[in-house]
Design a protein that fits this description.
The structure is a single chain. The protein is of the alpha+beta class. It folds into two domains: 69 residues, RNA-binding S4 domain (Structural Genomics Hypothetical 15.5 Kd Protein In mrcA-pckA Intergenic Region, Chain A, Roll); 194 residues, Pseudouridine synthase (2-Layer Sandwich), CATH 3.30.2350. 13% of the residues lie in helices and 32% in strands. The chain has five helices and 17 strands. The strands form three sheets. Strands 6, 7, 8, 9, 10, 11, 14, 15, 16 and 17 form a ten-stranded mixed β-sheet that branches.
């Protein structure tokens, strides 16, 4: 059995390989599952790519994904194997006042999905903010890019949620929409988010101004018939901006669900978030 009873033994092996000794608690585990010892931040798909490329050795021999490892065996990772997968473009913008502003690129999920091995900003938090017990405070749709805020402690999280409920958080987006919007508009319609795929705009007004969407024209492209908007919300619901703008006949360019679906790029970005902390205003942009 392994001599490392308290956990896996890591080390740099000859030839530039990374290696780990299988601990007792993983005796009998499949190789693709045991690879979490070497690639703790990688998804199952990323770990599978490593052994598919012949970059994973067990006691010096390449093994198939279904191979069951034994305690005490040495798993080695050849150079070039995928390391802890970090989505391109995900990064820390600023850390201040118990909060961290993170940039989420379009195409990356904000939160991990239960029961699925999906890449997400939430899964990358230990790499982006090492040593912090960070939690996400807001979410962006997968195709939306921009600022996602994280709290670095429970007190900061409670403070933020209290401010949001009080309407003291302002979130500003940039959106490129079809058509010409000449004047500012506030869309006050209530939303039905019960459908897990698409949010429905209801004919009645939402009683809470925190769920309204304010859109102001910034620039108009006459050739393409598109308007660049500044969009402000306070406490957003799922797909709020996308559904509200489509409701007033100005769907966001690239929106596959509420618009014409021109491609995988949705022209919606969270640009700025502002709220008042205990002693000072915090603005991330």
């Amino acid at each position: 059995m392994s001599a490392c009873l308290q956990g896996p033994c890591f080390g740099r092996m000859t030839g530039g390989m990374e290696a780990v000794i299988v601990p007792d608690e993983l005796h009998g585990a499949r190789l693709d599952q045991a690879l979490v010892l070497l690639l703790p931040g990688a998804s199952l798909r990323e770990r599978r790519r490593a052994w598919e490329a012949g970059q994973v050795l067990v006691d010096g021999k390449a093994r198939a994904k279904g191979f069951c490892v034994a305690a005490g065996q040495r798993i080695e990772l050849r150079p070039g194997a995928p390391e802890q997968g970090m989505a391109e473009g995900a990064r820390v913008l600023e850390v201040r006042g118990g909060y961290a502003a993170l940039f989420k690129p379009g195409g990356l999920h904000s939160a991990a999905i239960a029961g699925r091995d999906n890449a997400s900003l939430e899964r990358f938090l230990p790499q982006l903010l090492p040593g912090e017990n960070a939690v996400l405070l807001n979410r962006l749709d997968r195709l939306t890019s921009g600022i996602v805020l994280a709290a670095l402690n429970e007190e900061a999280a409670r403070r933020y949620y209290g401010l949001e409920d009080a309407g003291q958080v302002t979130k500003e987006y940039a959106a490129l929409v079809h058509g010409c919007l000449e004047w500012p508009v506030t869309v006050k319609n209530a939303l039905d988010t019960d459908n897990t795929k698409k949010t429905k705009v209801l004919p009645r007004e939402d009683e809470s101004p925190l769920r309204w969407t304010r859109a102001e024209p910034v620039d108009y492209d006459e050739v393409r018939d598109r308007t660049l908007l500044k969009v402000v919300i306070h406490k957003g619901a799922r797909h709020q901006i996308r559904a509200h703008l489509a409701h007033v006949l100005h769907p966001i360019v690239g929106d596959p669900l509420y618009g014409k679906g021109e491609g995988e790029k949705l022209f919606l970005q969270h640009k700025r978030i502002e709220f008042v902390s205990t002693f000072f205003a915090i603005v991330f942009e």
